[in-house]
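I have been asked to look over a protein record a colleague put together. Alongside the sequence sits a line of tokens, each denoting a local backbone shape. Please read both lines and tell me whether the tokens look consistent with the sequence. Take the sequence as given and treat only the tokens as open to question. I have pasted the whole thing underneath without changing anything:
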Amino acid sequence: MMSKKNLLALFGLVATSLMFSAENQKIRVKSSSVKGKVLTHKAALAEKPLELMCFLSETSCTMLESGEYLMVRLTKEGIYQDCPNVDIYSKGGDASKHKPLGEYCLLES
């Protein structure tokens, strides 16, 4: 039988693992467009369509080429107030070691 201390440690590891996997997701950017001062990337998360939007006036708003990336959902407040904020990293990027390619507003269908 497990002690309470070991059980809590195991629960903590499982919870941390689930949280990390939910926060860091692989996406595929399919196309990009600019309308006025807004950049929009059409993308997919496990074949579910989504859009990444940013204002060109923000320094973190960058045009992404079509391809695979790592998306990290930000838990703290970001630039955009009316939607979930995400950072995008190169496919092989490590969010703890690399600077994000950009910060975007996540619009899910």
